[in-house]
Amino acid sequence: MSLVAHQGATLLSLVADVFGGRSHGVPRRWRQLIRTAVSRVGPTVLNPLFAPGYSVIPDCVTPTVCMPDGDAASQFAQLADLSPDTLLDELETEFGGTVPPQWRLVVDHPQQWIHAYVGLLQCVWREFHPIWRSAEGLIRRETERVGAALVQGCAEAVLQGLSGRFHLAGDSLQLPDPQGTTYTLDERRLVLVPVVSGPGASMFAMDRTDMVWIGYPLPGIGRLWESSAVPVEPTKDALSLVVGQLRAVILRAAAQPLAMGELAVLLNCSPANATHHCSHLVDAGLLERHREGRNVRIGRTERGDAVVDLLSQARKVPEGFR
C-alpha cells in the first residue's frame, strides 16, 4: 500500500461535482470559482462524460489515466496529443458498437471535442491550482501519517478512517459502488489518493492489472475552506470572530449535509470534539441534524445560510462609507 497525491484525481472530483451532478461536497465558494473559470468556454463539453444513467468515461480522456505518475500539466499535454482514432476505438470498445446518444457529437467531431475538453480542464486547473498549493502542507502530513502507520503495521487503522462513506469489515473494504460488485486485490498494489475537493469525495479504479487506487477526502481539508473563504487575515474574518474559527469552518463545510465522521476527518479532530461544537451550533439554530440509516448528518439551516452569507460579506465596506 502507498499514497500518491495525484492532481488528476482532484480535477476529476471537482468537475464531476460542479458539472456532472456527482456530489462530492465541494464547498460553495470553490464551485463558484470553477464555474466562473469556464464561463467563456461553457461546460457542455462535459455532457457526454456525466450523462444520467451512465458512469463510463473512456480511459484515454480520464484525468487519472496516468495514475500514479504525472501532474495536471503532463496530463493536458497527453490529452492534447490524443488521436481521434484512439478515442473512437475506445468508445467502440466501451459501448460494444452502439455509442449512446450523448457521445454522437464526439463521434462526429472527435478532434474538435478533444480540443474543447482540454481547454475546459485547463481553465479549471488554472483557477484551482493556488488552492492545491495551499493544500501541500496537509498532503505532506497525510503522507507521513500513512507512512508511519504502514511501518507500524497499522494499515487497517488507515483504511478504517479514510472516509465516512467507506467501511472496513474484516479484510474487506466496502465502497459506495452502486453496482455492488466484489473485487479482489490479488497481487495488485493498493494506492491511496487524497482528494482536495469535498467531504464526499469517493473515487476508485478496480480494472487495472497492476494496481487498485482509491480516492478519499484529504484530512483537514476544512481548514482550506476557511482560509480560502475570505482573502484577508483569519483574525479579520467576521464569521470566525463571531462564532470562533473552528465553528466557522463547520458552518462553511455544512453547506451540504455531512456525516459526523466525515466532518471529524475534515477538521482533523476527534468525533467528540466535532460533536461538541456542532451541538452548540444546533442550539443556536444554525445547524440541524437528521438521520440517514446508521449515520447522523448535519447541515445548515436557512438561518445558518443567512449568517454565513452575511458575515462572509461583512468585510466589504459600501462605497459611500469609505
Please provide a written account of the structure.
It is a single chain. This protein has 322 residues and is an alpha/beta fold. Helices cover 47% and strands 12% of the residues. The chain is built from 14 helices and 9 strands. The strands form 3 sheets. The chain has a 4-stranded mixed β-sheet. Strands 7-9-8 form a 3-stranded antiparallel β-sheet. Strands 2-3 form a two-stranded antiparallel sheet. Helix 2 packs across helix 6, helix 11 (245-253) packs across helix 13 and helix 12 crosses helix 13. The longest helix has 25 residues, at 110-134. The protein is globular and about 60 Å long.
Main features:
single chain; 322 residues; alpha/beta; 14 helices; 9 strands; 12% strand
Number of E strands: 9
SSE order in H/E notation? EHHHHHHHHEEEEEHHHEHHEEH
Unreliable segments (pLDDT under 50, ≥5 consecutive)?
Answer: 229-235, 314-322
- Note the gap between the termini: 57 Å
Short characterization:
The chain is an alpha/beta fold and 322 residues long. The protein is 47% helix and 12% strand.
Topology:
Blueprint: E1 2-3, H1 7-18, H2 28-37, H3 72-80, H4 84-95, H5 104-108, H6 110-134, H7 136-151, H8 155-160, E2 167-169, E3 172-174, E4 189-195, E5 203-205, E6 211-217, H9 222-229, H10 238-243, H11 245-253, E7 258-259, H12 260-267, H13 271-283, E8 287-292, E9 295-300, H14 302-312
Parallel strand pairs: 1-4, 4-6
Antiparallel strand pairs: 2-3, 5-6, 7-9, 8-9
